[in-house]
Amino acid sequence: MKLETGALIVVFLFGGTVLGLGFLVTKTHQRQTEANELAHQAGKRKLEALWSAPDFDLADQRGTRVSKASLAGRPWVVNFIFTSCRSVCPLLTAKMVQLQRKLPGVDVQFVSISVDPAHDDPMTLGAYAQQWAPGEKRWSLLATTPASLAPVLAGFKVTAEPSDAGIDPIVHSSVFVLVDAHGEVRALYDSEHREEFQALVRDTATLARAQPAPVQARTGEQLYAQLSCGPCHDHPGLAPALGGLMGKKVELDNGLLVDVDEGYLLESILIPDAKRVRGYPLRMPTYDGVIDSAELLTLLQYVKKLPEQGPVAAPKTAVDPICHMEVTVAEDTPHHDADGGTVWFCSETCRAKYLAR
Ligand code: HEC
Asked: Partner of 39 for a Cys bridge, out of 58, 190, 197, 225, CB 3.0 to 4.6 A?
């Protein structure tokens, strides 16, 4: 039942055509459809200026003010998320991280605007950024208030509405918007589609006058971390644990049992929707077109050998003593060296609070 509701939301988000659900007003549908139609033009975009991005002035996860004016001078890509979302946002954020990885060193900004003013403050967004892309300095996650959010959504022609159906309290648009260095919206993309995602990478690079650089060879462990498999697969509530899968039988959402072999693992990574594991409303992003065949094989070998149980593949984590969030321990994670060892924080804000005690 849970699964069906989740599927409905996904159908709504990506298809925009499920009518009569009764929890969204018609106006929402019209606007949603407008953004979706614009987002479904893979290959046809001329990257002409469509309209001016709205003005905003919001705090990011570092507590820095970010505005349309402060972003000017380089292209930026914006999407809409909320951190407690368990249905579609992890998928969108995985795509955001894939995009960042496809454009290493390119002079662009990545912006994720929270559609959950009540819950996502800069500190929460900081912990989320730490979890997904600890080293990414080009990514700003912006906290909103109800008053600041509404004009931003309207200005990007996207929607986010409270909903009491399904597993998430907010249903919102899944588009990625490409804005140029002068603040003009140039195109919208539905990152769910493989061609759309590739167009997004290409067009962002074009606006930044850069070539998407080939990514250097990595070990399986590095790939697993970089491709952000962990933020989903190391959380048993979101996605199945990947340790000790080889040779097992897995139950699919259609009730069939399949044997886990190399072919199944490869298919899971490249065409995740072909066989869906039972019990997970969240969908996995495809890595087809995101990694090359050598990387795919390295990743496959790594996943095959992941031992059963325990967050072995997870990057090292620690619990922030102030906000009690789990943070990934990386080189640039805010920390404090105390007598008893190092204390790690989700953000500078928490570190400052800790030091002020
Ligand atoms: C956005 C969250 C998310 C990300 C990121 C993600 N996955 Fe998944 N993955 C899922 C979910 C949810 C399932 C189970 C539902 C399904 O089968 O579609 C799944 C299923 C799988 C399966 C099948 C597991 C089984 O028990 O049969 C494999 C293998 C897998 N993922 C590998 C990976 C690898 C490798 C990566 C990183 C390159 C990755 N996933 C990234 C969410 C994610």
From this structure: 190
Residue 96 Cβ inside 6 Å of ligand 1? The answer reads no
- Identity of residue 288: D
What percent of the chain has a predicted confidence (pLDDT) above 90?
Answer: 46
d(CA 2, CA 264): 25
At residue 109, what is the residue type? Answer: Q
Indicate if the alpha-carbon torsion angle 260, 265, 268, 271 is positive or negative.
negative
- We find that the CATH architecture of domain 220-305 is Orthogonal Bundle (1.10)
Query: Ligand 1, residues 219, 238, 284, 300: which to mutate, most atoms within 8 A of Cβ?
Result: 284
Place of tokens 């912990």: 127
Q: Cα of 285 to ligand 1 centre, how many Å?
A: 8
User: Mean of the pLDDT values across residues 316-344?
Assistant: 76
Question: Domain spans of the chain?
Answer: 2-207, 220-305, 317-356
